[in-house]
Amino acid sequence: MGIEAFRGELLDGVVGVLRDALPCDPISRSTFVRKVLLDPNFDPEGAPVAVEGSAVVGLAVAIVRRHPLEDAPPDTGSGYITLLAVAPGARRHGVGTALLTAAEGYLRERGCERTLISPYAPGYFTPGVDMKACEDGLRFLLARGYTTTSEPIAMECDLAAVRVPEWVIERERELSASGIRIEPYAAERLPALWAFARTHFPGDWQRFARAAADRIEQGEPATRLWIASEGDAVVGYSHHEVERFGPIGVAPDRRSRGIGQVLMYRTLEAMRLQGLHCAWFLWSDERTAERLYRGAGFRTTRRFAVLRKELTG
């Protein structure tokens, strides 16, 4: 078994390992190409591949950000591992250890002081390690010096059961009377939306909003993106991409007024009326889940461990 940098000829073998090693998170050839090979931060040297004879038996993907996210604070000194997979038949033979060592070495050589698994935007596959489905993998990483920094949850709800409650309709009336409008996307709101996002939600959230606006302008429903406005200012927005719900966000000084609930229910109702059956997302915390999502019928489906390891010292 040898470790070598990713080459295009290894693509199908890599995708096969990902299919067999990560059954809870199927990664198609196209998904791998879009999230890894098309990532402007991708470097083949940061993607060590384990090869035995002519067969691919494992892969890791380590990323150092060279192109900053839009308006996001710098994450200098941080490196990310977004994938670590070993073919089931090759486990417990040192393959995972060799891949992890190679990935961490790549990050150290590029000046990273720490590695994170795997809160890398925009190319993460899951927020971290699935604590149930990848229990063995989590133990493997904890034994090699990683510590858990947070435990985000994934949630989903049955859209067929979603109805906008009367209290939400009444709250929307009250907000409208106070000067806060909640409406589907309109291009006239874009300058104010970008100003809102730069101030309150820099980084990957802007990418989602831009992509949604672009698809709406190409013919998709305006109800993909809901915007809360007060006067000329945007104070919140909510979005979906097919069955994926979110992001959703409200300006800190406008929270606790029901704006988030109205945005959420309007988005979920729009999804239901499009004929979608499920709404899901991968990343929330328990506090937000209790305050916002559970009342709409969302239930927890997965729990992840976001991991960190210091590479210096």
Give a description of the structure.
With 313 residues, this protein is an alpha+beta fold. The chain folds into two domains: 2-152 and 304-310, Aminopeptidase; 156-284, Gcn5-related N-acetyltransferase (GNAT) (Aminopeptidase). It contains nine helices and 14 strands. The strands form two sheets. Strands 1, 2, 3, 4, 5, 6, 7, 8, 13 and 14 form a ten-stranded mixed sheet that branches. A four-stranded antiparallel sheet has the order 9-10-11-12, sandwiched between helices. α3 (95-109) links the parallel β4 (78-86) and β5 (114-117). α5 packs across α8 (259-273). 37% of the residues are buried. The model has no long low-confidence stretch (mean pLDDT 94).
Tell me roughly what share of residues is in helical segments: 25-40%
Distance between the termini: 30 Å
CATH topology of the largest domain: Aminopeptidase
| Number of continuous helical runs | 9
Low-confidence stretches: none
- What is the CATH level 1 assignment of the largest domain? Alpha Beta
The total count of strands amounts to 14
The CATH architecture category of the largest domain equals: 3-Layer(aba) Sandwich
Radius of gyration: 21 Å
For the report, how would you describe the main beta sheet?
10 strands, mixed
Instruction: Average the pLDDT over all residues and give the rounded result.
Output: 94
**Strand-residue fraction?**
25-35%
Structural class: alpha+beta
Integer tally of domains = 2
Outline: elongated
Series of secondary-structure elements, N-terminal to C-terminal: EHHEEEHEEHEEHEHHEEEHEHE
CATH superfamily of the largest domain: Gcn5-related N-acetyltransferase (GNAT)
